[in-house]
Amino acid sequence: MGYAQLVIGPAGSGKSTYCSSLYRHCETMQRSIHIVNLDPAAENFDYPVAMDVRELINLDDVMEELGLGPNGGLMYCMEHLEDNLDDWLTEELDNYLDDDYLVFDCPGQIELFSHVPVLRNFVEHLKRKNFNVCGVYLLDSQFMTDVTKFISGCMASLSAMIQLELPHVNILSKMDLVTNKRDVEDFLNPEPQFLLSELNQCMAPQFAKLNKSLIEQGVDGFSMVSFVPLDLRKESSIQYVLAQIDNCIQYGEDADVKIKDFDPEDDD
Ligand SMILES: Nc1nc2c(ncn2[C@@H]2O[C@H](COP(=O)(O)OP(=O)(O)OP(=O)(O)O)[C@@H](O)[C@H]2O)c(=O)[nH]1
Ligand SMILES: [Mg+2]
Mind listing the GO molecular function terms for this protein (predicted)? Predict the structure, then answer.
């Protein structure tokens, strides 16, 4: 059984920074973790790249040769990845052992996890290869200042959750930039009634019905939209987020069994 995080979220929400902080954290904890770049447009990395989609296809070549713009080019690259799951990805995954823990740093284009099946098929492939996968959705805490932005963030996260059908952890990133923690506290584990009344206050009365159904169907109906705050300056915060994710994919649960199975005779 392998373990994987699929790190998704809007452009600039802090996915790559999270991946590199997670890498350093695990290095300190002497825990093995491999970060995979799935962004065909990425150029600089703060973490050692274990697998790189740019070895398969890169955005500059696609834009130049096919005359596509950056977003169309990216969609083309990701569809190419989808076509190569059985060869490129399978070969790359063969380099990893049973217990390995992979973290996939995804591109930020929101269409990738809302209305094209690329990531979904990618995840299905990982599952077939015996990986336990968790969707890790990052949302920038700078957007948490008012209820309308919060709802739009929730809806984007929900659409990813529904599309990917994975265990899912929502993270509120960049907490170091939040000066008044009170401002975001209301949004971490939101009360549907509170959200509804806030929403009604900042929107015109004709939206009341829409607001009600958004909150009832989206936030309350799924009762899954809650956020874990992440402050990368604090090891304890990274540790907490990682523990939540590990729990979702049952990482570490069979550790006891493995120690018992271990045969000292095999050790040189
Ligand atoms: N203060 C602060 N800035 C952050 C944090 N995480 C990311 N940033 C900044 O936010 C910007 C975007 O961060 P990235 O990690 O590149 O975001 P991303 O989600 O990988 O972006 P794309 O790959 O382009 O979608 C960079 O300028 C980062 O330095 C954080 O925890 N705190
Ligand atoms: Mg990135």
Answer: GTP binding; GTPase activity
